Amino acid sequence: MREETLRSLILRAKSGDSEALQTVIERFRPLIKKYTRQADLKDAHDLEQELILRLIVLVRSYREELPYGFMELVEQEWAKNSRLSN
Amino acid sequence: MSRTQSPVVPFFSNPLLHRFLQVADNRRLFTNVILTRNEADRLELERRFAEHYFEMRFLGFVRKHIHYEALHLLNKSRAKAKQEPLLLNMPLSSEEAGGHERIELLEDPHMSVEMQVVEESEELLNLTGNPALHEAIQGLTHKQQTVLYLLYVKQRTEAEISAELGVSQQAINKLKQSSLGLLRKKMSRSPTERSVGR
């Protein structure tokens, strides 16, 4: 079985799956640590909590969008390139 | 992962496509679709691209928002630390302090009037680092010590002191002269004489 994609994780978390949400938080912990390391020791824990909270809000509020399919984008790029070479 | 390296390595300046086609499987699918127009492969490619697009967009979205939120919070706590440093809540250095904070060592500044009087009368004595002078001052009467204290420590004029203590300025001047005379006399005596004289 292949590893669960970020997309399916986010979609599950959005629909209220707390286990999926936990996994998302773990995946983003390195990003959050990057900032908590810059804080004073006494503030680091608070900052971590705030950022995790923010992440949860971001996950819940995220809306999937797909403005173009793969082949559409490829054709757009090719059209652009041929216009440039002409 | 990469079973058959596709001969065609398509190049796209679009970073989204470029990154997507860095994955060998995606490249293989793409070549298949172009060459054979395989519908199943095309659907798989589209599905994978949707995943890829989602991932890139979501990562960008989260990174941007977490970045700004973190900077905002870091700046806020730094500004707060600068404005109201918790110096008094700093733990005492040694371990035997048992987790006590500096604030617990502060004394109540509102001490009783009696305490203040004692403190002040002692001040003149404490100000000199010279042991001989210290001893000489101790030999003065309380009145003499007070006048010297007010004159030289508190920098009051004779007129001010006379008003404060309710005695004439001449009396203050006389006390000053006699006290200084006594101190001079005691200080100029040889150490042996002084110890004998006690």
UniProtKB/TrEMBL annotation, chain A:
Q: Which residues form the Helix-turn-helix conjugative transposon-like domain?
A: 8-63
Classification via Pfam families? HTH_16 (PF12645)
According to its UniProt entry, one GO biological process term is:
DNA-templated transcription initiation
What InterPro entries has UniProt attached to this entry? HTH_dom_conjug_TS-like (IPR024760), RNA_pol_sigma_r2 (IPR013325)
Among SUPFAM superfamilies, the record links this protein to: Sigma2 domain of RNA polymerase sigma factors (SSF88946)
MF terms (GO), sorted A to Z: DNA-binding transcription factor activity
Name this polypeptide is given: Helix-turn-helix protein
The protein's organism comes out as Tumebacillus permanentifrigoris
From TrEMBL, chain B:
**Coiled-coil blocks:** none
A Gene Ontology annotation in the biological process aspect, one of them, is: DNA-templated transcription initiation
- Domain RNA polymerase sigma-70 region residues, every copy: 136-185
The GO terms describing molecular function are:
DNA-binding transcription factor activity
Return the SUPFAM superfamilies for the record.
Sigma3 and sigma4 domains of RNA polymerase sigma factors
**Database matches in InterPro entries:** RNA_pol_sigma70_r4, RNA_pol_sigma_r3/r4-like
Q: What is this protein called?
A: RNA polymerase sigma factor (Sigma-70 family)
Species this protein is from: Tumebacillus permanentifrigoris
